[in-house]
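Bench notes, afternoon.
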Amino acid sequence: MPTGDDGERDERRDRAMRHFTVHHDGGTIPVSRCGRGRPLLLCPGLNSTQADLHELTELLRRDHDVVTFDLRGHGLSSAADRYSFNGFLSDLVAVLAESNRLDLPEAPVLVGYSLGADLAVHYVSEHPDTVAGLVLIDGANALPEPFITDADLAEFRAMAEDMATQQEAERSRGTARQVSLTAQDIHDLNLEIDVVRSRILDRYRKIDHPISMIISTSIAGDGTEGRAPRRNQLWRAGIERLVHERPHISTSWIDADHRLVFTHAPEITEIIRRHTNPAGRLTS
């Protein structure tokens, strides 16, 4: 262990948040890094930013070297003319391609939340040698049927409009939590993600790395009326289908809805720590 002045400098470095910018696809992606220990890269989801994941990052940095970033149109990243799953995937690829600037001592564990989990699965299926393992938080589910049916379209469109309205205040202030997507962008992306998940089993079949999944028990809330029970049941069925196909996947359920990464950060941190050994690789 470092002592004296060297130890104090190391502690100050660990407390400090370091930043750099990735130039990609005509825009910029802000990247942040903090902590010391096992390398871990945290990928936010749709309508979430690295600033939103602040509590989880602060907890993980105690024994992880944590790298976070914003997807295009999120946080302090550049806005785009249009948004797509492949566009977001290219953002993740661009960040991990900065190996010289990241200078990680070993391959990181890739942690993805919601859409970020789907991006992580696709990334690892194409770049298997660049990560040590996966932690997937309430995403990348191998759904046996569409999550959004014709009967759900009106409700999901309304939710997208509400989300876009809520984001207007953040955009007007230019905060690190702002999201530039319109209601139509959000709605179209939700439909695209549904299609991505209908095919995601093929991606899992290409992955030999350890995978740990952290899943909400009630992704749509605990209501007993309307479409929520069907969505919760479908979410569980998708995980069961995935584990049947890939039995080496570890699953941990948290009694929460899809906001679990914001409401249950300490529990999520402990699960990640339990499934990560000192060498920075996930255990089964």
